[in-house]
Amino acid sequence: MGKSKKKKSSTLFRRYIPVYILMLPAVIYLLINNYLPMSGLQLAFKQYSQKLGIFGSKWVGLKNFEFLFTSKDAWNITLNTIGYNLAFIITGTIFSIFIAVLLSEVKGKRSIKLYQTVVLYPYLISIIVVAYLLNAFLAGQTGFINKMILEPLGFEGISWYASPQYWPFILVFVNLWKSSGYNIILYLSTINSIDKGYYEAAALDGASRWQQFRYITLTSLKPTIITLTLLAVGRIFYSDFGLFYQVPMNSGALIDVTNTIDTYVYRGLMELGNIGMSSAAGFFQSIVGFAFVLLANFIVKKVSAEDAMF
Amino acid sequence: MVGKKSGFFPVFIHAVMILLVIICLYPFAIMFMSSVASESSIVKYGYNLIPKEFGFDAYDYLLKRPMLLIRSYGVTLISTAIGTVAGLFMSIFLAYGLSLRDLPARSVLAFVVFFTMLFSGGLVPTYIMWSQWFHIKNTIWALVVPRLMVNAFQVIVMRSYFQSNIPDEIKEAARIDGANELRILFQIVLPIAKPIIATIGLMIALNYWNDWMNGLYYVTDSKLFSVQQLLNRILSDAQYLSQNNDNVELTTTIPTNSLKMALATVGSLPLILLLPFFQKYYVKGMTIGAVKG
Predict the structure, then answer these.
(1) Size of interface A-B (CB pairs under 8 A)
(2) In this predicted model, what pLDDT tens digit does every residue of A243-291 receive, in sequence order?
(3) Is the CB of residue A63 less than 8 Å from the CB of residue A153?
(4) Do B103 and A182 lie within an 8 Å CB cutoff?
(5) Residue A126's closest CA among B217, B84, B230, B124?
(6) Which domain holds residue B130?
(7) CATH number of residue B117's parent domain
(8) 3-class DSSP state of A114
(9) How far is B194 from chain A (nearest CA, A)?
(10) Domain assignment of residue A99, given as a range
């Protein structure tokens, strides 16, 4: 039995040689682009010198981490990254479900197509263009909000890019504007797949719209909500670099409320030349981020096993 | 949901939807209208939906320096074309192999793909690898290679499409008729999989079209600036245009404010015009992806 199985797999192997050859470029690419840099995680424990390279640089133990965690930046970037992500998950989920439920009530294929296209515009446009669009509203001298709203009402214009207190709200709003389209369409397609018979039966039994929403729509959406939320929780240690770097136009005055792990790593690497701290923060992100993915998956397994990722 | 046909609810839906359309599109409208406003009216009255005074200072400026946009559009088009074709075929072949249930070492290969979604080495080692070991800085490859298979998720989506839409019986029948594996792939599987290939291809192409990160990391030579990177540089560095003036005319002032909006308009125009035509495929790809494989 064992022998015939072995033989079978070797004939299968021979049969699939052309397929392996076709798969090769992609596998090699992933090994280089995604796996090779993992060896560079050791930089977090080294003093990087370009001349000596990743492998030749001197080991310095935990020094990079000591510097990182004794600076106020470590707390700041960790709290910002997690805090914004939580705000994005909560506002995004509620808003997307709200819009998707209303959209599912819209009659007429044309209007549905129109609305779908409209919510996709912000989603598909590049974050650089988003930074331009926001700038049209917030620019100090020429921005729409200062010139058309505040000044005509007799208020003084606000220099938005130098006023950190507004940015948590601005970033939550921009994120909602930019990324809701995706979730709206996913939730909408789930709602559309609900059997209409449930609603008719419920209406016959005298269920109100709210009760129909609560017991039919929301219950059917539960697996999608769980999946999307847990995917987001798995990414809670990562942030959208463009949103936190480009949208505030890299303004120094806003750094306390716009600095996340990703912008910190980028600034350390490209602007400050502080490779040590940058790789320590990157290492911290890789490891804790991985722990969050495992945690998220563990929770799904407990809650609803069939939705688990692995 | 089922309820009374008349009453407050339908009105509420329409009100919310109209509001949604306005919120989504208003910034784009301001962008476009400000690009056709005269510079002096923007300086005086600010960005507005209806300009106090129309003017084409910005487009005039761009038309006098055609190479600025032609060059960056060329860079974007070339990197998008190479990246999309290469990335798409690499993904298709990988996904097809992973879809073969009896492929030896399939689970190992599947793990190699899947694990990239869970763990990564991060920016610092990746940057050092591409720039110090492979020397892609300031080459067109900088805009192509680090993004070739940016999303293992797409491979997994494609694999589950192959598995659920191409019955093993067809492949088995072709084998009995003497077709080899390559013929099965190219003449049977790929034609059936056209919809998912088109959708994933579209997603990869958009990824390249919108990409500015690789430019930011690996390109400093302004000859190799893509459209997005050009936009990025001009927004972050107001002096960029006056420093890179080919035909030095220090006397002409740059219509900075309207020019910004004109550049944003020109940069996003292809997507704005084409989205209504391809949104169907994009939505399909999103919803296929959401179905667990």
Answers:
(1) 285
(2) 999 999 999 999 999 999 999 999 999 999 899 999 999 999 999 999 9
(3) no
(4) no
(5) B230
(6) 66-244
(7) 1.10.3720.10
(8) helix
(9) 18
(10) 83-254
| CA torsion angle A43 A44 A46 A51 (round to 10) | 30
> Mind listing the pLDDT tens digit for each residue in B199-224?
999 999 999 999 999 999 999 999 99
Contact A33/B at CB under 8 A: yes
In a domain, A238, yes or no: yes
Beta strands in chain B (DSSP E): none
CB contact under 8 A, A18 and B271: no
Q: What is the pTM of this model?
A: 0.91
Q: What is the CATH number of the domain that holds A149?
A: 1.10.3720.10
Q: Do B283 and A120 touch (CB under 8 A)?
A: yes
Q: Which chain A residues are Cβ-neighbours of B107 within 8 angstroms?
A: none
- Locate the chain B residue with the closest alpha carbon to A112: B17
CB-based contacts of B6, cutoff 8 Å, min separation 6: none
- DSSP, collapsed to helix, strand or coil, labels residue B210 as coil
Chain mean position to CA A97: 18
Q: How many domains does chain B have?
A: 1
Residue A38, in any domain of the structure: no
Kindly list the residues from chain B whose CB atom is less than 8 angstroms away from the CB atom of residue A107: none
Tell me if A269 is assigned to some domain.
no
Enumerate the residues of chain A whose CB falls inside 8 A of the CB of residue B236: 246, 249-250
Domain count within chain A = 1
Residue A198 lies in a domain: yes
Q: Looking at chain B, which residue has its C-alpha nearest residue A287?
A: B119
Per-run averaged pLDDT (10 residues), chain A, 310 residues: 59 90 96 95 93 91 93 94 97 96 89 91 95 94 92 92 96 96 92 91 91 91 87 91 95 94 95 92 95 90 76
Outline where chain A has alpha helix (H): 2-15, 17-30, 53-56, 63-70, 73-104, 109-124, 127-138, 144, 167-192, 196-204, 209-212, 218-234, 241-245, 255-258, 261-266, 275-303
**A18: nearest CB among B28, B149, B182:** B182
Neighbours of B291 (CB within 10 A): 11
A146 touches chain B (CB under 8 A): yes
pLDDT in tens, A196-230: 999 999 999 999 888 999 999 999 998 889 888 88
Name the one residue in this structure whose structure tokens are 């072995």. Answer: A6
